[in-house]
UniProtKB/TrEMBL annotation:
<keyword id="KW-0325">Glycoprotein</keyword>
<keyword id="KW-0378">Hydrolase</keyword>
<dbReference type="InterPro" id="IPR043577">
    <property type="entry name" value="AE"/>
</dbReference>
<dbReference type="Pfam" id="PF20985">
    <property type="entry name" value="Legum_prodom"/>
</dbReference>
<dbReference type="Pfam" id="PF01650">
    <property type="entry name" value="Peptidase_C13"/>
</dbReference>
<dbReference type="GO" id="GO:0051603">
    <property type="term" value="P:proteolysis involved in protein catabolic process"/>
</dbReference>
<keyword id="KW-0788">Thiol protease</keyword>
<keyword id="KW-0732">Signal</keyword>
<dbReference type="InterPro" id="IPR001096">
    <property type="entry name" value="Peptidase_C13"/>
</dbReference>
<dbReference type="GO" id="GO:0005773">
    <property type="term" value="C:vacuole"/>
</dbReference>
<keyword id="KW-0645">Protease</keyword>
<feature type="signal peptide">
    <location>
        <begin position="1"/>
        <end position="23"/>
    </location>
</feature>
<comment type="similarity">
    <text>Belongs to the peptidase C13 family.</text>
</comment>
<feature type="active site" description="Nucleophile">
    <location>
        <position position="211"/>
    </location>
</feature>
<dbReference type="InterPro" id="IPR046427">
    <property type="entry name" value="Legumain_prodom_sf"/>
</dbReference>
<dbReference type="InterPro" id="IPR048501">
    <property type="entry name" value="Legum_prodom"/>
</dbReference>
<dbReference type="GO" id="GO:0004197">
    <property type="term" value="F:cysteine-type endopeptidase activity"/>
</dbReference>
Length: 486
């Protein structure tokens, strides 16, 4: 009788224990128990495929310090998360760490009290090898199309997960690059479609830090590609630099440039703080959206595009997770950890650098003279571009209608332009007569797209540009010696 009773109790206990484990697994996406052993939830790398990452900083110049710092910091998070260097591909011009302006040679920081994020970062594609062609070839796994660099590509398979992170300046339908031409939205989408058609990934996630970055996907990224993307801003607004001189917390006094970007440091700091087995893409999106949200004087609307059902995926599928964060599970109150009390419009962050450089230099010194010259060249270039675009609009559409046509914003869900080749042709036509758009001039891409949408021909654009720009500034910002941006 005792044996039968004991056996019955054991059977009941086994059933109950099985039920508890099953119930925990069923609610895995909703709640995690910190006391649970990770093996209950974790899958080994073979079961989730290989994690791949492509990280790209699209700028050069010390005044753009923050973009390479963002990318290097992202690398450190992925590395600590368990990704191997052979699966992380880094694009950056690599001209910041040892720039004479850098107060800590060989060191990059991404926050005022941050650690060095530069150490150990692979130099896969640097300098003139940071090109659109190499970026696309790396994503597609096409080694034959690579020129220069390490030759590393995303050699992924059907069960693999890919994460792409870009940080730089942008404009409507375009992302900046340190080389020419720039990266246009239609070409990126076609590359992603080609990658999907090859059947060489299970899911792919894209994070983009740039002004008007929503326009990269708005109306042109179809669903059904197993791609999920978030952007630092919607299709019409700026993104923001952070950890800049004069903000709280202030940067170390020896720095005169912004150390990070608001959207970028929001997702990176969130990722390095938590056990990413417990945080989903959706939860991180909500955290970053809150931190980056429009404030009285700054902020942007973080957006999401593509296959939103992927938002239920846990971040570790793409980023791995730092084993030291095992007990730091996701909670809704992440926003209690503010990034910064202020931010600077991405397009004005270079002015912050040049002004602080001028302000801190000794009176009469060559450094002060050079800083003043740089500041004046930047301002001259900006005024020239703004005035030229406005005048072209008036010449093409009349004094009364010109500005309205240039500022037209299409309804949500529509692509920026009907004919992307027209946009690129008119960009080149403008630059031929008026000089390079450069990083600031990308703010006028929507105006040029609207000129296309209005049916203006190349010859009409050339004639108007020639009239608007009998000459253009001779400074480096307007120079065409490196080629056209389209």
């Amino acid at each position: 009788m005792m044996i039968r009773y004991t056996s019955g109790v054991l059977i009941v206990l086994c059933v109950l224990m099985s039920s508890v484990v099953d119930s925990r697994l069923m609610v895995d996406n909703l709640i995690r128990w910190p006391s649970d052993h990770p093996s209950i939830f974790e899958s080994d790398d073979d079961s989730v495929g290989t994690r791949w990452a492509v990280l790209i900083a699209g700028s050069s110049g010390y005044w753009n310090y923050r973009h390479q710092a963002d990318v290097c910091h992202a690398y450190q998070v992925l590395k600590k998360g368990g990704l191997k260097d052979e699966n992380i591909i880094v694009f950056m011009y690599d001209d910041i760490a040892y720039d004479e302006e850098n107060p800590r040679p060989g060191v990059l920081i991404n926050s005022p009290y941050g650690h060095d994020v530069y150490a150990g970062v692979p130099k896969d594609y640097t300098g003139e090898d940071v090109t659109v062609n190499n970026f696309f070839a790396a994503i597609l796994g096409n080694k034959d199309a690579i020129t220069g660099g390490s030759g590393k590509v995303v050699n992924s398979g059907p069960n693999d997960h890919i994460f792409i992170f870009y940080s730089d300046h942008g404009g409507a339908g375009v992302l900046g690059m340190p080389t020419y031409p720039y990266l246009y939205a239609d070409e990126l989408i076609e590359t992603l479609k080609e990658k999907h058609a090859s059947g060489t990934y299970k899911s792919l996630v894209v994070y983009i830090e740039a002004c008007e970055s929503g326009s990269i996907f708005e109306g042109i990224l179809p669903e059904g590609l197993n791609i999920y993307a978030t952007t630092a801003s919607n299709a019409v607004e700026s993104s923001w630099g952070t950890y800049c001189p004069g903000q709280d917390p202030n940067v170390p006094p020896e720095y005169d440039t912004c150390l990070g970007d608001l959207y970028s440091v929001s997702w990176i700091e969130d990722s390095e703080r938590h056990n990413l087995h417990t945080e989903s893409l959706k939860q991180q999106y909500e955290v970053v959206k809150t931190k980056t949200a429009e404030k009285p004087f700054y902020g942007s609307h973080v957006m999401q595009y593509g296959d939103k059902e992927l938002t239920q995926d846990m971040l570790y599928l793409y980023m791995g997770t730092n084993p030291n964060n095992e007990n730091y599970t996701y909670v809704d109150d992440n926003s209690l950890h503010p990034t910064s009390s202020n931010a600077v419009n991405q397009r004005d962050a270079d002015l912050i650098h040049f002004w602080n450089k001028f302000r801190k230099a000794s009176e009469g010194s060559q450094r002060k003279i050079n800083a003043q010259k740089q500041f004046m060249e930047v301002m001259s270039h900006r005024v020239h571009l703004d005035d030229s675009i406005k005048l072209i609009g008036k010449l093409l559409f009349g004094i009364e209608k010109g500005l309205g046509v240039l500022q037209t914003v299409r309804p949500t869900g529509q692509p920026l332009v009907d004919d992307w080749n027209c946009l690129k042709t008119l960009v080149r036509t403008f630059e031929k007569h008026c000089g390079s758009l450069s990083q600031y001039g990308m703010k006028h891409m929507r105006s040029i797209a609207n000129i296309c949408n209005a049916g203006i021909t190349t010859n009409q654009m050339a004639e108007a540009s020639a009239q608007a720009c009998p000459s253009f500034p001779s400074g480096p910002w307007s120079s065409l010696h490196r080629g056209f941006s389209a």
